[in-house]
Each structure stands twice: as C-alpha cells, then as structure tokens.
Amino acid sequence: MALQPAGPTPEPEAFPRLHWSGTLLYVPALYGFGWLLVRPLGGLAPGLRPDQVDLAGAVVALGLLLLTLPLRLRRTWGERHPWHALGVRAPLPAVLGAFVQGLLRALALLALVVGALLASGSARWIGPAGLEGGEVLNALALVVGVGFAEELVFRGWLWGELQRQMAPRGALLLQAAVFGLVHPWSQAGWLGAVGLLGGLLLLGLNLALVRRDDGGVLWGAVGLHGGLVGGWFALQAGLLELLPGSPPWLAGPGGSQPNPIGGLVGWIGLGGLLVLRGCLKQRCREKGIPDTNV
Length: 294
Description:
The protein has 294 residues and is mainly α. It has 11 helices and 2 strands, in the order αααααβααααβαα.
C-alpha cells in the first residue's frame, strides 16, 4: 500500500470534527492523566525516586495514546486505516529499509561530532570495552522507545493534524517549533538555550522531511531520532570520554551531560542534511525527474 499522508491534504473544511482545541489538549490531557494515575506509586513503593515515578507516568500516557489514537483518527480524520495514515504500518521491506537508513543518518551525524571532538583534543576514544551489558540494553531501549514514542506524537499524529488545518509549509514549520519548545532547552543559559532550540528546530525539520521522502513511512524518522538519542547515550556511557574543558560550542550545552545538537558541529550536520536534500531536489528538477514530495 502506497503511503503519502505527508503530501497534499484536503482543505480544513473536509475535517469538520477536527478543531484546534482538540489538537492542543489531546496529548497534554493524556500525559496529565497518566501522571495522576501513577501518583499512588510514591506511597506504595517509597523506594522509587520521583523521576522513576514520572517515567512510569510517561509509560502509562504512551499506553493511553496507543489505545486512543486510532479512535481519534477515525473520528476526526475520517481514516479507516489509522496506523497506515500515521506511517506505522507499511510493507516490511519499506519499514526495514527506512529504519536502517535512519540509523545510518544518525551514525553519520554522531561520527561527525565524535570526529570533531577527537580532532580538537576535547575527548578520548575508549571503545566497546567501556560499555557494560546494561548500558547497551539501555541504549537499544532508547533507540526504540524514545524514537518511536516521540516520532509517533510529532511526525505521526501532530504533523498530520496540522496539515489538515493549515498550509503544508506552515504545518512543517509549526511541528518542528512545537517539537523544539517542549524539550528542556531553557535551562542552559541564554547562549546554550539558543543553541539547543535551534538544533531542535533543525532536527524537527529533518525528521519530518525524512518521513516525507520515505513516502509517509514513519520508521526512517524513528531510526534517525532513536539512533541519535541511543547512540549519544552509548558514547557518553563508555565509548567516549569527554575531557574537562570541552567547549560547549563544540560538544553542545549541558555541562557534564552535553547535547551535541546544540553545538556548532550539530548545527552543521543537521543543516548539512537539509542543504544536501535541497541539492538533490534541484538536480531532480534539472533532469526532469518528477518530485512527488514537494
């Protein structure tokens, strides 16, 4: 089945049951409900840390999202096959191909950051010997868990809702802006905050365009997003040692736990992907090859 949910969409009037209020409140309401449901855990299991209780709430909220999202898409989008419309269900070769390509993009971006850190003397390579089995499992869980959950919300559901309520270019930019704003970027100082927010916006644009280039299949974005999160965790957990005094503009803001997409190299890598994609599209136009993803 061909998937093109990220292409041209009907006018907003075609979705009379879809309203901005529902788009704004749907996921926050699920998250709040999940948070409330797990509050008793603090009393039932006093040994749990507050962050562990919050994580349990996020897992419950994800479960509620998976249960209610098909119902919402049938009711407000008029979709008979919601998981296809979200890009989750697709032919297995398309899923695997997109996911592997996403992982390879993540590997290339991380290699760029690591290369810059090593070349500048800001880090030392340790290798696989620095990783324990539990850390490897954590990294794999981040690849699948964070990658799938956030891409389902932002590039699956949110982008789809925005495209049905506004112009395509505006929907593309707004989903990236929302993606960036909901992440914790404001606590890194003004310069670090600008770096992180800019990097998150670039990442949000790249992830959406990856999905569009994959014909609507979500798994390329999952591979790219999850690969970056899980890969950077593995690097920090033991593959790479950041040396004292690593400049934030290079390693990214965050102190002892830097986020490289907020640094100069992260910006160059993410911006370079956008420029490369634009160049490829231009070459297609020059050769007369139709581009169905415009």
